[in-house]
Write a structure and sequence with these properties.
The protein is mainly alpha-helical. It is 57% helix and 4% strand. α13 runs antiparallel to α14, α22 crosses α23 and α23 packs parallel to α26.
Length: 559
């Protein structure tokens, strides 16, 4: 959550200018109006200070109520809008964007408002907009470390980590103890494959006790351990700190689990992975999700799609790599993006934003007809063209631009309406291996189905059910890329991928681990290595611990 409040924030609360008096008779009235305005401003000031205190104490509903009271009396109050934006950042990116944009509109010379708006744009993968606002914030207040780090992070996400490095280095010179500088610099270096350099900055952060849980968790991802590192005992000591918060415990348990897994101490590793999930506090409504999958299957029928055969844009530029996380989506993207005519844009939120805007989201389970019927032929073309413009920002000359957001498997029906000629690569992996690989990673709240093994198995069954439906209603459209086939014979499967993309073969695809592009997913260490087979049937290392998963997978578990 963004708890940052602009310094000297009361100066941002300004009563509107009183009209000039036109004669002596109006002076007393003007004085009364001025007094009322000042009194209202003071009351707003007090309410917003109280709202900020509530926010710090995690009393978010009370903070929101106070901000809305201010807006009811003083519409478009910039600071009230800003605080509301920070509150919505926890669970509604679109609402956060709207409030930050309104705050910027009311007070365009405030660098903090531009920074927060830029950070909100980063969360929804609108990197050009994010960079624009953060650059303007720097013009308003050069040397502001939060802005330097925010802009650097946006460049890293936008596949330009080389532009992030000097910004982080400048920030480091200004404030060597800022919590975002070293971990951010390490992230940019890691995305470039410079793992050893990244580790140096993470160790410095740990030594200075700056954002230690995140630094430890990132540090253990920079290499594979063959003997116990000194960091393991340090991590275990930190886990005994009585002041450790749940988020810190979540990260440290995952870090310990990763090291122990590398060392083949599987029982100890899984104990830490379980404790990490417990610390996260996340939960998932599998019944609601199942009803939503029902709605998608009932809505996107062959007849429905046939009636909309002329919708969207015929471009063959978009490529969507979908599947469960940890199914080989990053590896697939790296192989394809090694081709000179393909650009890998990473995991983009653009399609999800379109889906949310038209009501195609889990909360609409039960009735999607109204949402889907709102997509007219004209609207489908408009949405498709806007999406293409967005993709062109990444690589104007590329013949194919890949979006590897795994959970776009839920939105293949929408893809069919917008881009009937898009390529869709479905990455599939052994179900138990796939789920175990998910479980041992530190995912955010958006992956709360990953919190316990039983729910994870049930979620996988819903994913499988939906993918079988898409294959029925889009026969021959979706290329299934089996992870096991890819690691068994990389060249043969890579050639099939290129054929599916309609591109001539290029030997660069065999040396995907040498490409210069950045990688910003948990797989960034693995995809810098040649293909290895040790991840196949990895689940057997945890066979005793994962029985709830195997049971919930049912007939999908290939034992």
């Amino acid at each position: 959550m963004n708890n940052r409040l602009p310094p000297a924030w009361s100066k941002h609360i300004k009563p509107g200018p009183a009209p000039k008096a036109k004669g002596p008779i109006l002076k007393p009235m003007m004085n009364v109006q001025k007094g009322i305005a000042q009194s209202r401003a003071q009351a707003d000031d007090a309410l917003l200070k109280q709202a900020y205190m509530h926010q710090q104490e995690n009393r978010l509903d009370e903070a929101q109520d106070l901000c809305l009271r201010v807006l009811a009396r003083t519409p478009n109050h910039p600071l009230a809008l800003y605080i509301l934006g920070t509150l919505y950042q926890r669970y509604d990116d679109e609402m956060a964007l709207r409030y930050f944009a309104r705050a910027v509109g009311e007070e365009p010379e405030n660098p903090y408002y531009h920074l927060s708006l830029g950070e909100a744009y980063v969360k929804v993968s609108e990197y050009s907009q994010a960079i624009k606002h953060m650059q303007y914030a720097l013009e308003l207040q050069p040397g502001l470390v939060d802005v330097l780090c925010g802009l650097a992070r946006a460049y890293t996400k936008f596949d330009k980590p080389d532009m992030a490095l000097p910004l982080y280095e400048k920030a480091l010179k200004i404030n060597r103890d800022h919590p975002k500088v070293r971990t951010g610099l390490a992230s940019a270096l890691s995305s470039l494959g410079r793992m050893d350099e990244a580790a140096v900055y993470l160790k410095e952060a740990i030594k200075r006790r700056i954002d230690m849980p995140a630094a430890y968790n990132d540090l253990v991802q920079t290499r594979k351990f063959t003997e116990e590192p000194e960091e393991l005992q340090s991590i275990l000591r930190e886990l005994g700190n009585p002041k450790l918060d749940p988020e810190g415990a979540h990260k440290l348990h995952h870090a310990a689990g990763k090291v122990l897994n590398d060392l083949k101490r599987y029982g100890e590793a899984f104990d830490h992975f379980n404790k990490a999930k417990q610390a996260s506090g996340h939960s998932f409504d599998i019944d609601l999700y199942r009803r939503w999958i029902d709605s998608l299957i009932e809505t996107f029928t062959p007849d429905f799609l046939a009636a909309r055969a002329g919708y969207g844009n015929p471009s063959d530029v978009p490529v969507f790599v979908v599947g469960m996380p940890r199914s080989g989506t990053t590896l697939t993207e790296q192989i394809c993006a090694s081709h000179p005519d393909v650009h890998g844009a990473g995991e983009l939120n653009k399609l999800r934003r379109v889906a949310n805007a038209i009501g195609l989201k889990t909360s609409s389970a039960g009735d999607l007809n109204q949402s889907i019927m709102s997509i007219t032929e004209d609207l489908s073309r408009t949405l498709a063209e806007e999406h293409l413009s967005y993709l062109r920002e990444w690589a104007p000359a590329a013949l194919r631009v890949m979006d590897k957001m795994p959970h776009n498997f839920e939105l293949i029906g929408l893809i069919g309406l917008l881009f009937p000629n898009a390529r869709i690569i479905h990455c599939r992996r052994d179900a138990i291996d796939n789920c175990v690989s998910c479980f041992v990673l530190s995912f955010n709240k958006g992956h709360s189905y990953n919190t316990d093994l039983h729910t994870l198995g049930l979620y996988y069954r819903e994913y499988d059910r939906l993918m079988r439906h898409w294959n029925e209603v889009f026969p021959g459209l979706i290329f299934e890329n089996r992870y096991e086939a890819l690691v068994e014979d990389q060249e043969a499967q890579s050639r099939r991928l290129m054929d599916y993309l309609g591109l001539p073969w290029d030997d660069a695809c065999l040396r995907f681990f040498d490409r210069d592009g950045s990688v910003n997913t948990p797989s960034r260490w693995q995809v810098r290595q040649p293909i290895y087979k040790s991840s196949v049937k990895r689940w057997k290392n945890y066979e005793n611990e994962i029985q709830p998963l195997i049971q919930s997978l049912g007939d999908l578990a290939e034992i």
